[in-house]
Amino acid sequence: MFQLDYKSGVPICDQIVNAFIRMKALKILDGGQQLPSVRSLAIDLSVNPNTIQKAYSQLESMGIIYSVKGKGSFMSEDASADLAVIKTAKANFAAAVSKAREMGLTKSDVIEIVDEEYKERGL
Questions:
Q1: Is the dihedral of CA 78, 83, 84, 86 positive or negative?
Q2: 8 A C-beta contact, residue 56 and residue 35
Q3: pLDDT tens digit sequence for 44-103
Q4: Which end of the chain is more exposed for a tag (fewer CB within 10 A), N or C?
Q5: Cα angle at 69 between 77 and 12, to 5 degrees?
Q6: pTM score, whole prediction
Q7: C-alpha pair distances (Å), 8 with each of 4, 92, 116
């Protein structure tokens, strides 16, 4: 499904949350699609089930997934889930721009980087 980077410094729980947000944004997971159980995903990723449960709880509080008792967790079909994905992307981008500014990059440097990224992807 996705891989974790244990050396990145980003908490595992956050990596899991971000991975599901990314899959929702890229339409890899559709609304209504069932997510792996906490136990099976924990085994697949070799992490503690409590970490998966925490990630699922965060995703649910963001409105990106919902749980059905006895059935599991599912991607939300609600438009608010898409808005949550966009909000997260904007927050991540703002943090990256802030970090770039701290490192001495100018506004034109950042715009150039954005343009290059979009060109590479043919957008």
A1: positive
A2: yes
A3: 999 999 999 999 999 999 889 999 999 999 999 877 777 877 888 898 899 999 999 999
A4: C
A5: 70
A6: 0.73
A7: 9, 16, 24
Tokens of 103: 């490192």
Collect all residues with Cβ–Cβ distance below 8 Å to 39 and sequence separation of at least 6: 49
Tokens linked to 7: 């050396």
**What's the one-letter identity of residue 41?**
L
For residues 9 and 16, the answer to whether their CB atoms sit within 8 Å is: no
**What residue has token string 């967790």?**
73
Tell the residue number behind the tokens 């089930």, with chain if given.
49
- Can you read off the two tokens belonging to residue 78? 């609600």
Q: Residue 51 has which token pair? A: 């970490």
Given this model, what pLDDT does residue 1 score? Answer: 76
Token pair 């595992």 is found at 12
Q: How far apart are CA 66 and CA 58, in angstroms?
A: 11
Nearest CA-CA partner of 41 in 69, 9, 15: 15
Structure tokens at 28: 């890899």
